[in-house]
Design goal:
Blueprint (H helix, E strand, L loop, with lengths): L20 E5 L5 E4 L1 H7 L3 H4 L14 H11 L5 E8 L5 E12 L5 E9 L3 H19 L4 H19 L3 H6 L7 H8 L4
Antiparallel strand pairs: 1-2, 1-5, 3-4, 4-5
Helix pairs in contact: 3-5, 4-5, 4-7
Length: about 190
């Protein structure tokens, strides 16, 4: 497996509202399937994706604590919805609204994971960009990566507790947040 190095650009790629990016992974998160839309939008060829960790498309603007929440949930058999900023092969970025679920065998054992990604609501992307910037800042404040991950996760947990809603409800009520400026003000106490 070759580590793929990509330098981020400031160019955004979008895809159609009716299109669906689909991938499947094994239990360790290595890609076992990628549909044509995934390959087209990410600009990776199939042979570059199969066997790679799904993190090959992880944009450096994404806080690691969001993926901790995702993995903690799906490894326990739950499903997760999340807004995710990904990076394409040429460094361009694209936002998705992801729905990630475990795949079960006949005996109810988790044998892998499945992700469907849709074109996201632009207002939600605006709001999540502000939240993710705060979480990433908190993670980077710590010299030890594990401490940073835990601090970001704790910050996310505290924000949700302050809002009085679980993560899933927060994701689905994004429209109730009037603006990214409003969220930034709400987060100002976490700087």
């Amino acid at each position: 497996m070759v580590k793929i190095q990509v330098t981020p650009t400031q160019n955004e790629i979008t895809f159609g509202d009716g299109e669906l990016i689909v991938s499947k992974t094994d239990l360790k998160g290595h890609i076992t399937y990628a549909n044509d839309v995934f390959m087209r939008v990410s600009q990776f060829d199939e042979h570059e994706l199969i066997g790679q960790p799904h993190s090959v498309i992880r944009h450096p603007d994404m806080p690691r604590c969001v993926f901790k929440l995702l993995w903690d949930t799906i490894s326990q058999g739950g499903e997760v919805f999340a807004y995710v900023k990904n990076i394409a092969r040429n460094g361009d970025y694209y936002w998705v609204f992801a729905h990630v679920t475990p795949t079960f065998d006949e005996g109810g054992n988790i044998i892998g994971y499945h992700s469907n990604r849709r074109s996201p609501d632009r207002h939600a992307v605006e709001v999540m960009s502000v939240l993710y910037a705060h979480l990433l800042k908190e993670e980077r404040r710590h010299s030890n990566a594990k401490d940073g991950l835990n601090a970001g996760f704790q910050m996310l947990s505290n924000i949700l507790e302050t809002q009085g809603i679980p993560y899933d409800e927060f994701i689905f009520t994004m429209g109730n947040i009037e603006s990214s400026d409003g969220l930034a003000k709400a987060l100002s106490g976490y700087n």
